[in-house]
Amino acid sequence: MNIKSRILLSAVALQLIGFAVLIYRNNAHITDTVVADSHRQFQQSLTMAVQHFDDSSDRMQRMAAGLARSGELLHQQRQLLSRSALENQSRQLLLRTFDDFDQAIGGGIWFEPFALKPDLRYFGPYVYHSPDNGLQFSWELSNADYDYHNQAWYQQALPPGWDRRINRSSAFYWTAPYIDQAGSESLMMTVDALMYDSNQTLIGMSTVDWSLQRARNYVKQLAPTANSRSFMFHADSRLSVLDNGQAEFATLDTPEQWQQPLLKMSPGQVQHLDVNTDTPSYIYAAMTQTGFVVGFSVPRRDLLAAAENYSAPTLPMSALIAALFAGAMLLILRLLFGPFDTILALLRSTIASNKDSTAIEVRPISYRGRNEFAPIVSTFNTLVEQVQSYNEELNATNTALLEQQQQVQELNSNLEQKVAQRTRELEQKSNEALESLHQLKLTQNQLVHMEKHAALGDMVAGLAHEINTPLGIGVTAVSALEDYLEELKSQYQQEQLSKTGLKDFINFAEESIDITSENLRRAADMVSRFKQVAVDQASEQRRDFEVGDYLQSIASSLRPNYKYRPIKVEFDVPDKIIVASYPGALAQVITNLMMNSLTHAFDPEQSGHIRIHASRQDDTLMIRYCDDGKGMEAEVLQRLYEPFFTTRKGKGGSGLGAHIIHNLVTGQLHGRIEVESTVGQGTCFHIYLPCSPPGPGL
Hints:
Layout: H1 3-76, H2 83-98, E1 104-111, E2 126-130, E3 134-138, H3 152-157, E4 172-174, E5 178-179, E6 187-196, E7 202-211, H4 213-220, E8 229-234, E9 239-240, E10 247-248, H5 256-263, E11 270-275, E12 281-287, E13 292-299, H6 300-311, H7 314-353, H8 373-380, H9 387-493, H10 499-539, E14 543-546, H11 547-557, E15 567-572, E16 578-581, H12 583-601, E17 608-617, E18 620-627, H13 634-638, H14 657-668, E19 672-678, E20 682-690
Helix pairs in contact: 1-2, 1-6, 1-7, 7-8, 9-10, 10-11, 10-12, 11-12, 12-14
């Protein structure tokens, strides 16, 4: 094989090898990309599923809390109402509560023995959704046969032997999944909300039963591929809900060494595990607030098959391109070697025509090789005779050089035009980027404004919750008085009214009117305090106000947020500190500080203290706000006031609370704020404000 053939075959072989490597790497990249995208999509779907479950459980807890407050109200009126009136009110309350809430399969209000009446051991009204008859009210569980005080769901919140004078650590307790054997025969969970009397003594609980059938159907639909398997099990009891509470977690075919990471997840956490068993699979799981681990297992072969579906269409095209490129290379090499052979032939003919010339005498070179170098040697033997031709070639080379220089000049001219064009395009892109930055700043300001007014919405909700109790007591007292009046009217019409009966009615009426008046005054005082704080936050007007009383009003409006948590708010503010400032801005600062402490500094069941101290020195108002919660690390303190920075990303934190505090103190209030914090020992904010800050625009 001659040199030309070897060069030709080597070039084609190298090109084919390069294409093969390129195709292999491209397919591997496609596979990795498809698998990575699938991981992200599966984890996002689980995150949405957990949010769906947590929203449902939060709604169940809110309903249970509302029933508990209503039960406490019934307990307050136990002396005023007869047993039949208590039974009638509880019946109407439960039917009205569960009438339009199909996610709850039922619920009830369950009192401790003799908590309502000295002779009433069981008082447990209950409603449930019947598949055939709709919403049904029942007293069947309020008897010694069922003995609800000794049922597992009741003892979940109130263990046997627990001193009822000692508050429980949590306001809500969830049972493990179970099948209701008493009424609905459905798979469900129960949330217990505790009830207390005015002395904070435990008097019973309210319950809401959550039907898990819809949750089971929802989890079954999460499986993304044909061979995927969904699972949903309770972490504490390890009962698989998809198997009607009868199967253990081991039925999921998950290796023992992978069970512990799933069982140790925290609420909201998403796990992605690579399981190497007889059928290699990926497991995706997440935990809800109620202790469920939901997810699905996907065989690895399903993801690889999906990746092959993406890469398979590219293989024929890549092979065709490789073949076309190899053919093009063969043609190009043939064209490259063809002119070389032609030139050699011309040189041979020229030498032959000038062979008899006597102008130059040169001895020929003897060469016996039979390859491509033989013609070159033959041509070299005539070099001396071709000196003239070299001169002509030199002239031709100079001419070509001049032409190339002209081409270079033309290229330089085109290059300058392209540079100018690219410069104009860059300026246009810069202007677009500046406009986008301006829009981003406007959006950020709108978000900050929305966050500032979100606290006012929370205060409205808190006010509605707080005034519900005094208004409810007043309504109940008036209702009882109306019933007594009807009875008195009936006795009068039947001429059976006695002096003693009239006297009893007058005493009852005076007591009912006193109760109603006292509770209406309480509600009016709450509305008055909230009205001033709300007007200040909405108007942002400057006025004179007394600092101690105003801080107490702010704390009162936020009381529903910590009323049922073991957190005490203490004030150390001298009387008669009067300033001329912006009370709305100060209310926003204190509100954000307290909500940050309740959200970040203390766990839901952790006890603690919040202390607010204020004093005046000359023309400066000094406020020190401290909590003894978790504290902050140095890295968090450095970024505390940055907008949208939060340690609870994805869990309800907006990252604007501390940013708004700093802007209000240093901006509208014309003061300064300092913070000091130690991990495990709490956080203190020191705020220094002028007692009479300048007006807007100064």
